[in-house]
C-alpha cells in the first residue's frame, strides 16, 4: 500500500472513530426518543456515505473491484430509505417496534441479494494461484455458484437446528405470529448466508485484498448483530430497542465504507497453497451441517413428534439445493476428468516427441521399431538412417537459430515424402530415422526421392542454402535378428559408408560393412592418429603443384592432408575434412598440417622458394592463428612469406567484411591470405571483393568445367566477370580441379594465371613423386611477391 493511500485510509478511520464516539455519547446521554432519532439519523447518514463512496470508488475501478463496490453501494440505497422511514416512525410513534411493515420482506430480500452478489464478486484467486487459462469465466462462475449453494445449505441447516431446539418452543409458548417470526428469522438467515460466503472466500480462496475483505466481513457482522438484537427483543415480547443498536449499525456501515477505500493492490498477492485437509473440509462442510439437522429431525420422528410446515419447507429446500449442487459437482468432475486425460495425453506427447520438429523422438521410435520387429514375419519393413551433411557448419557460420530452421524444414520434407503409416523420427542432433512399417515396393527409390527433396535449397537468414543428407537403408524380413539396436547400428553403418562415398549418397546395408566404418569409431581413430598413435593410421601431407597455366611451371604448392587408415586404407582429403569437422578436430588437423609443412620447408624437403597453401576453415579458431603460426615459423626458422593461409568456408555465406579486423591482424603478422571456393554456392564468401586483406582468390571447381554444370554459358559469363573484377582489384586468381589440358588452356585464355588439380600430380616431402608432371621454375611473381 502506497504511503499516500495509507494516509487517506488512516484519516478516514480517525474521522469514523470520532463520528462513532459522538453518536455513542448521544445514545447514552440524551432522552430515549431524541437519542433514537439522533442515532437513527447517524446510521442513515453513514448508509448514504457508503452508497456515495462505493459508487465513486467503483466508478474509478475496473473488473471485479468495480463490481463488488457498485453492488454493495446499491444495497445501501434501499437500506438508507428503510432507515429514513424508521426515523419517521420514531418521530410519530416513539421507539416502539412496528408490528408489521408490508414491504419489509421484499425490501430485505432485495438488499440481501445485492449484498450476496457483491460478496461473491469480490476479487479472489484459487489457493494455488493458478488460473484456468482455457476458460477462466466458466471456472469462476462455477465456483461462485457452488459457494452460494454451500452457504445456503449451511445457513439452512443452522436455521433448522435453531428452529428445532430454541425458536419453535418459544413461538409455541408465546403464541407468536409464525409469519412474523419467520420474517424476522429470515433477516438473520440472510446475514448468516452472507457471513458463510465471506468465510468460504477467506478460507478456501485467496482474496486479492484480504484487508478489504476483513473490513467488509466486520461490517456485515455488525449489521447481523443489530438484526439479532432486534429479533431477540421481538422474540422476548419487547416493544422497543435501545439507541445503542443504531450505533452498532452506524459502525457497521463505516467499516464497509473503509473497505471500499482500501487501495486496489497493484501486484499479485503471494501464492497460498491449499492444503488437502482444507479442501476436504471445504467439500464436507455443507453435508456435515445438513447431516446434523437431519439427525435431529430423525430423532423427532422416532419420538412420534410431527414435522410442522416450517421444518418440512426447510428440509425440502435443503434437499433441492444439495441436489443442484451434486449435479453441478458431477458436471465439474466430468470436466476435470476430461482435463486430466487431456493433460495426460499432452504429457505423453511431450515425452515421446521432439519439441523442435514435432517428430517422434528416439523413445517412441524404439517402441514402433519393437512392434515392427514383432510383426516382421507377416509385414517386412525397412529402416532408413538419415544424417544431414555439414550441419555443424551451418550452426557455426549462420547460428543455432538457422540450424533449428534447417532441422524443421528437413523434418517437414521427410514427413511429406513418406506414407501416412510410416514413422519419421528425430534421434538427436541432425540425425533422423524413418521406419517404413509396411512392405515398400522399392525402398531404394524412396530413399533417393527423399534425398532429392532434402537437397532442395533452403532459405536461411534470407539467402538460399544448399542442403544435403547421407542415407543408410536396412531392409528387414523374417530372417532379421529381433534386435532394434542391431538394426539401428546397421543403418548407421550404411549411412556412414554413404558419407565416405560422397555427400548426399545412399548405401544399402551389407554384412561386409564393419564397425570400424561406423561414425563413432572412425572419429575416435582419427583423434588417436592425430595424437601420433600409428595403430590407428598415419596422417601425412601431400603437395599439389600450383602452376602457371600458360607455361606449366610450378609457382606454389598446395598442402593436402591424407590419412592412411589401418583398415579403410587411404581416406580421401574431402572425407577427412568432413570426419575432422564432425569430430571437432578441424583445428587439430590444421595444426598438424602446419607443423608438417614447417618441418618440410625447414629441412629443405620442398623446392625453394615455393610458398605453400594451407587451408583453414573460417570461424574455427582463426583468431588464434597469427600467434600459433608465428610460433611454428619461429621454431623452424621459416619465413612468414613461406605460408599462405587459405580461408576455406565452413558452410553458408561468410561476411569477410565483418571479419576484416581479425584478418588484418593475420596479414600484419606477415602471413598472406587467400580465399578458397570463390563463386561456388556451397562455399560462397560474402564481401570478398570489398577490400578484405587478401592477395589471392581460388575459384570454385565449377568454373574449371562449366560443361558439367546445368548452365554452361551462364557459368562462363560469371567466370569472366569474377576474373575481370579480380584483375581490376589486383588479386591473383588460382583455378582448382583441373583434370585435362583442354581445361587448362580454356582457363588461360580466359585470363586465369594459375591453376591446380589432378592434371599436375602430387608429391610428398623429399622430392617429386612419379605422378608429378609439372616443370619446376621460380614461382609466379604474384605469388612470390614480398617473399
Which helices and strands occur, and which strands form pairs?
Blueprint: H1 3-29, H2 32-60, H3 63-93, H4 104-120, E1 124-125, H5 136-174, H6 178-204, E2 206-207, H7 210-235, H8 244-261, H9 276-302, H10 309-352, H11 362-374, E3 381-388, H12 391-398, H13 400-417, E4 423-428, E5 431-436, H14 443-455, E6 458-460, E7 463-465, E8 469-476, H15 484-501, E9 506-508, H16 519-530, E10 538-548, E11 553-565, E12 569-571, H17 573-583, H18 586-602, E13 612-617, H19 625-635, E14 643-648, E15 654-655, H20 660-668, E16 672-678, E17 685-686, E18 696-699, H21 712-728, E19 732-735, H22 741-750, E20 754-755, E21 775-776, H23 781-784
Amino acid at each position: 500500500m502506497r504511503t499516500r493511500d495509507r494516509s487517506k485510509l488512516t484519516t478516514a478511520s480517525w474521522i469514523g472513530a470520532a463520528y462513532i464516539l459522538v453518536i455513542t455519547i448521544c445514545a447514552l446521554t440524551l432522552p430515549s426518543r431524541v437519542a433514537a432519532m439522533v442515532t437513527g439519523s447517524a446510521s442513515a447518514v453513514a448508509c448514504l456515505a457508503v452508497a456515495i463512496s462505493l459508487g465513486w470508488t467503483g466508478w474509478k475501478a475496473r473488473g471485479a473491484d468495480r463490481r463488488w463496490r457498485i453492488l454493495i453501494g446499491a444495497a445501501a440505497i434501499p437500506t438508507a430509505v428503510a432507515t429514513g422511514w424508521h426515523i419517521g416512525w420514531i418521530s410519530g410513534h416513539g421507539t416502539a417496534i412496528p408490528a408489521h411493515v408490508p414491504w419489509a420482506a421484499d425490501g430485505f430480500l432485495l438488499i440481501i441479494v445485492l449484498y450476496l452478489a457483491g460478496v461473491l464478486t469480490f476479487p479472489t484467486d484459487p489457493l494455488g494461484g493458478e488460473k484456468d487459462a482455457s476458460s477462466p469465466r466458466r471456472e469462476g462462475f462455477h465456483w461462485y455458484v457452488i459457494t452460494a449453494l454451500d452457504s445456503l445449505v449451511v445457513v439452512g441447516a443452522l436455521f433448522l437446528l435453531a428452529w428445532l431446539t430454541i425458536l419453535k418452543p418459544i413461538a409455541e409458548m408465546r403464541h407468536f405470529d409464525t409469519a412474523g417470526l419467520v420474517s424476522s428469522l429470515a433477516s438473520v438467515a440472510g446475514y448468516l448466508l452472507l457471513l458463510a460466503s465471506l468465510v468460504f472466500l477467506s478460507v478456501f480462496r485467496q482474496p486479492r485484498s484480504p484487508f478489504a475483505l476483513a473490513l467488509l466481513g466486520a461490517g456485515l457482522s455488525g449489521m447481523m448483530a443489530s438484526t439479532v438484537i432486534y429479533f431477540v427483543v421481538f422474540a422476548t415480547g419487547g416493544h422497543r430497542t435501545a439507541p445503542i443498536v443504531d450505533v452498532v449499525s452506524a459502525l457497521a456501515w463505516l467499516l464497509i465504507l473503509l473497505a471500499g477505500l482500501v487501495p486496489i493492490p497493484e501486484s499479485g498477492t503471494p501464492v497460498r497453497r491449499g492444503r488437502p485437509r482444507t479442501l476436504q473440509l471445504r467439500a464436507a462442510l455443507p453435508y456435515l451441517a445438513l447431516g446434523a439437522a437431519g439427525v435431529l429431525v430423525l430423532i423427532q420422528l422416532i419420538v412420534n413428534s410431527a414435522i410442522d410446515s416450517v421444518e418440512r419447507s426447510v428440509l425440502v429446500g435443503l434437499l433441492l439445493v444439495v441436489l443442484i449442487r451434486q449435479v453441478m459437482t458431477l458436471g465439474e468432475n466430468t470436466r476435470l476428468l476430461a482435463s486430466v486425460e487431456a493433460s495426460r495425453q499432452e504429457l505423453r506427447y511431450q515425452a515421446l516427441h521432439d519439441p523442435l520438429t514435432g517428430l517422434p523422438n528416439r523413445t517412441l521410435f524404439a517402441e514402433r521399431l519393437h512392434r515392427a520387429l514383432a510383426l516382421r514375419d507377416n509385414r517386412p519393413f525397412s529402416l532408413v538412417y538419415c544424417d544431414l551433411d555439414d550441419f555443424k557448419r551451418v550452426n557455426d557460420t549462420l547460428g543455432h537459430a538457422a540450424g533449428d530452421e534447417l532441422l524443421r524444414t528437413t523434418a517437414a520434407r521427410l514427413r511429406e515424402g513418406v506414407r501416412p503409416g510410416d514413422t519419421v523420427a528425430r534421434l538427436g542432433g541432425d540425425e533422423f530415422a524413418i521406419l517404413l512399417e509396411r512392405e515398400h515396393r522399392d525402398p531404394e527409390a524412396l530413399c533417393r526421392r527423399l534425398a532429392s527433396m532434402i537437397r532442395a535449397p533452403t532459405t536461411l537468414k534470407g539467402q538460399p542454402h544448399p542442403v544435403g543428407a547421407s542415407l543408410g537403408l536396412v531392409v528387414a524380413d523374417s530372417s532379421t535378428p529381433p534386435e532394434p539396436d542391431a538394426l539401428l547400428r546397421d543403418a548407421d553403418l550404411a549411412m556412414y559408408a554413404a558419407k565416405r562415398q560422397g555427400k548426399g549418397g545412399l548405401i544399402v546395408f551389407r554384412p561386409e560393412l564393419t564397425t570400424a566404418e561406423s561414425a563413432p569409431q572412425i572419429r575416435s581413430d582419427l583423434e588417436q592418429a592425430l595424437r601420433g598413435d600409428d595403430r590407428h593410421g598415419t596422417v601425412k601431407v601431400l603437395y599439389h603443384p600450383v602452376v602457371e597455366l600458360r607455361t606449366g611451371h610450378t609457382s606454389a604448392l598446395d598442402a593436402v592432408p591424407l590419412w592412411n587408415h589401418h583398415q579403410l586404407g587411404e581416406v580421401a582429403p574431402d572425407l577427412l575434412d568432413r570426419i575432422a569437422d564432425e569430430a571437432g578436430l578441424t583445428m587439430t588437423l590444421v595444426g598438424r598440417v602446419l607443423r608438417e609443412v614447417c618441418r618440410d620447408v625447414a629441412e629443405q624437403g620442398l623446392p625453394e622458394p615455393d610458398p605453400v597453401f594451407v587451408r583453414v576453415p573460417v570461424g574455427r579458431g582463426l583468431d588464434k592463428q597469427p600467434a600459433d603460426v608465428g610460433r611454428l615459423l619461429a621454431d623452424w626458422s621459416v619465413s612468414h612469406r613461406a605460408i599462405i593461409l587459405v580461408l576455406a568456408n565452413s558452410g553458408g555465406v561468410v561476411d569477410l567484411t565483418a571479419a576484416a579486423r581479425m584478418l588484418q591482424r593475420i596479414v600484419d603478422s606477415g602471413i598472406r591470405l587467400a580465399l578458397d571456393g570463390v563463386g561456388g554456392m556451397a562455399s560462397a564468401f560474402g564481401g570478398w571483393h570489398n577490400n578484405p586483406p587478401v592477395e589471392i582468390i581460388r575459384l570454385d571447381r565449377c568454373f574449371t568445367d562449366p560443361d558439367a554444370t546445368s548452365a554452361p554459358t551462364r557459368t562462363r559469363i560469371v567466370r569472366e566477370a569474377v576474373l575481370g573484377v579480380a584483375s581490376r582489384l589486383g588479386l591473383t586468381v588460382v583455378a582448382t580441379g583441373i583434370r585435362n589440358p583442354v581445361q587448362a588452356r580454356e582457363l588461360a585464355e580466359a585470363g586465369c594465371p594459375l591453376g591446380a588439380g589432378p592434371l599436375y600430380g602430387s608429391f610428398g616431402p623429399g622430392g617429386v613423386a612419379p605422378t608429378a608432371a609439372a616443370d619446376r621454375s621460380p614461382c609466379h611473381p604474384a605469388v612470390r611477391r614480398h617473399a
